[in-house]
Specification:
169 residues; alpha+beta; Double Stranded RNA Binding Domain; Arc Repressor Mutant, subunit A; 2 domains; three-stranded antiparallel beta sheet; two-stranded parallel ribbon; 5 helices; 28% helix; MethylDNA_cys_MeTrfase_DNA-bd
């Protein structure tokens, strides 16, 4: 099967999002969505930019950033270990506007408490920010733990979704 790797950029309140994917006869499979300055973001070549295959992803991101609850319905093809894939898939069950804790997520996956850090590492390796909402996982004490896009962006996303109340300064 002939596939090609492509990318696009989507403007957002968080900066330009980089979306990458593979295109085949079956269509686009999204492989990553990264925020500006995010560690581990894929390197792309200018000549591989092709906005057209990402039309559905662009529309769904526009709906999300307009403030409407969004459940992304895209073909996904992130690269990761079977354990990472299981953790990332579990994120799909965390509804818009809610949060869960690392411990609750680990328990749902059957991961022993002693291996809780493995869940955190898998979340840190999530290549599909926003689409696979790792920003909705917080500390048991309500604290904002690490986020590949930065903790300030995690707070922004949770406030945008209504899971946190805006702070007044």
């Amino acid at each position: 099967m002939n596939t090609r790797t492509v990318h696009t950029v989507h403007p957002s309140p968080l900066g330009d999002l980089l979306l990458t994917g593979t295109v085949s006869a079956a269509g686009l499979a999204l492989t990553s969505l990264t925020l500006p300055g995010q560690r581990g973001a894929p390197a792309v070549r200018a000549e591989d930019r092709d906005d057209a295959p990402f039309a559905v992803a662009h529309r769904q991101l526009e709906v999300y950033f307009s403030g409407r609850p969004t459940r992304f319905d895209l073909s996904l093809a992130p690269v990761g270990t079977p354990f990472q894939q299981a953790v990332w898939q579990a994120l799909d069950d965390i509804p818009h506007g809610t949060t869960t804790t690392y411990g609750v997520l680990a328990a749902r996956l059957g991961v022993p408490r002693a291996e809780l850090r493995a869940v955190g590492r898998a979340l840190g390796a999530n290549p599909l920010l926003l689409v696979r909402p790792c920003h909705r996982v917080i500390g048991a004490d309500g604290s904002m733990r690490g986020y590949a896009g930065g903790v300030a962006r995690k707070v922004w996303l949770l406030t945008h979704e209504g899971a946190l109340q805006p702070t007044l300064v």
